[in-house]
Amino acid sequence: MSRLYFIAGASGSGKTAIMKNLQEILGENIAIYDFDDIGVPDNADKKWRQESTEKWLQKLLSDNKDACLLGQIVLGEILACPSAKQLDKINFCLLDVSDFERIQRLKKRHTYGIDQNMLNWSSWLRMHHQDPQWVQHVLTESCWHGLDFSVWDHLTNWNRKAFVKTLDTTRLTINQVAKFIAKWVNQKNDQNAELIPNSPYKIIVDHEPNQVDNDAVMEGLISFNERVMGEPRDEEFSVFLKNDLGDIFGGIQAHFDTESVYVEVLWIDEMLRKKGYGKKLLDAAEQEAIKQGCIFSIVDTLAFQAEEFYLKSEYKPMGEIKNYWYEHSRLFLRKAL
Predict the structure, then answer these.
(1) Measured between alpha carbons, how far is 322 from 164 in angstroms, rounded to an integer?
(2) Mean pLDDT of the region 63-67
(3) Residue range 4-56, pLDDT digits in tens
(4) Adjacency order of strands within the sheet including 316-325
């Protein structure tokens, strides 16, 4: 059976803009279609969109080839179409963008009718593709008679019906968005992935992960931690050693993490080492941490780096990973401020 991919989003999210780049990246093996190619009448409304979604499904299923359909399509409407019964789980990606950036993009291309309703629609789409229960009447009231919303209107998530991905395009170029979508499509086609028995999921080892997937993992962990510990404080700051010309000869990169400061990087130019400059930098970072309410300073270092320096600065060993880097151990130290 052919694989179908639906890429949607409200106006200004980047659907149309990426089509050429996406086709170039994916090549001729996957057809790329614009939803509006079906022909948009002057009086196009919700009923027209919903009926046109069914017509597109009929075409894609009839063609029986891998394809991407981009446009003003809605996951709940796809699933409610009669032809959706012929599909396995739907592959659906919602392109999203911040409200401000959306308006700037629409103004730049002189889109007619820019108003708050556009933002309301994009906001509703954002919620709909996370929560099937969200304000369903937006789709169901005055809808096209051919739809059957009962196939999903009782669901609390889309997991049984669709693989749903959301991509924030606010800070991405057109080509970056196209590459992300192409990678998403290709991963779905990855026949070498390890399928998990009796599960809709698979294990994929990715040596070139995109930032969106990495962010999803990090955000998932942060969300879990916040439910247990509350919202953490994570503020970065730096301390620099400079001359009168502004040249940098040393510095610290650190961040506050709840009640501790974590010194991630400490570097001093070789010609200035063992002259007390490192201690002055560390003292400055610790004093700033105290001002911010921290009660501990935490560092880690490799055994050949700065263990002696930290011990002389009243840091106490807290742990060690032996042979962390070949024969070199990684050491963890902490100081009560």
Answers:
(1) 42
(2) 93
(3) 999 999 999 999 999 999 999 998 889 999 999 999 998 889 999 999 999 99
(4) 234-242, 248-257, 260-268, 296-302, 328-336, 316-325
Q: Which domains does the chain have, with CATH numbers?
A: 4-193 (3.40.50.300), 234-336 (3.40.630.30)
The pLDDT assigned to 130 comes to: 92
Closest CA to 238 of 282, 301, 299: 282
Quick one: pLDDT band at residue 192, thresholds 50, 70, 90? low
Percent of the chain with pLDDT over 90: 74
Q: Sheet of 162-168: strands edge to edge?
A: 31-34, 67-71, 4-8, 90-96, 162-168
Which amino acid, one-letter code, is at 222?
I
Rounded-to-5 percentages of helix, strand, coil across the chain: 40, 25, 35
- Cα–Cα dist 167/129, whole Å: 12
Please list, in sequence order, all residues whose beta carbon lies within 8 angstroms of the beta carbon of residue 251, skipping any fewer than 6 positions away. Answer: 238, 239, 240, 241, 265, 266, 267, 281
Contact 170, 98 (CB under 8 A): yes
Write down the H helix ranges in 109-252.
116-128, 137-140, 174-188, 211-229
What one-character DSSP code corresponds to residue 5? E
| Residue environment code for 268-281, b if the CB has 16+ CB neighbours within 10 A, otherwise e | beeeeeeeeebeeb
Contact of 188 with 33, CB cutoff 8 Å: no
Q: Which of 30, 10, 52 is nearest to 19 (CA)?
A: 30
Q: What does the pLDDT read at residue 89?
A: 86
Nearest one of 131, 138, 147, 126 to 53, comparing CA atoms: 147
Question: Which tokens belong to 95?
Answer: 């392109």
0.70 exceeded by pTM:
no
